[in-house]
Amino acid sequence: xxxxxxxxxxxxxxxxxxxxxxxxxxxxxxxxxxxxxxxxxxxxxxxxxxxxxxxxxxxxxxxxxxxxxxxxxxxxxxxxxxxxxxxxxxxxxxxxxxxxxxxxxxxxxxxxxxxxxxxxxxxxxxxxxxxxxxxxxxxxxxxxxxxxxxxxxxxxxxxxxxxxxxxxxxxxxxxxxxxxxxxxxxxxxxxxxxxxxxxxxxxxxxxxxxxxxxxxxxxxxxxxxxxxxxxxxxxxxxx
Length: 239
Fold this sequence. Notes:
Layout: E1 6-14, E2 17-23, H1 28-34, E3 41-43, E4 48-52, H2 55-65, E5 70-72, H3 92-96, H4 108-116, H5 121-137, H6 148-160, H7 165-182, H8 207-215, H9 220-232
Parallel strand pairs: 1-5
Antiparallel strand pairs: 1-2, 2-4, 3-4
């Protein structure tokens, strides 16, 4: 069944409380139904209705609009970037760390968006570190007034400082996250050229080294496995 009416679910954070945002084109039918939801309120800040973020409210949304409108949850149930799905978001280190008095801190909304996107704690630490290095380079300039030329100059400085390609790429990601994800500026930085990944030739063992490896294996099963891997050219994840 195809629905002409469409409701998109969004993650909202208001006064440090999590909400489900309901974004749709207003019409009489949907306006009547949405007001029947429990604890529903209008958000002037986000220009949409919102309800507390919990399973009961989510179930109620699906039940209320079933057969009337298509509930689009692709923005709500995004793929998690956290390697540990049961990982608790932790930013205590951010508030407790020692830092110079004139040090420019990562904006609070940056942390909030990282939490909503379910980034792992390791990624959060990395993004905060790199983004703070970036904004402290432009200490006397408002963050939102840093333009693409400034960013290119900063990346050029990283290259001249002989930073690794991985470090530069992660720096770009941390900067893009603020302007594109936090501030909602699409295509703000896509024209910045990323450094090419270095192509390294694999280390190849000689035939004599392979023979020595096989001969030094005492367990016949292990000897068979090593011989099979070498003779068939299997990769580590294929055996």
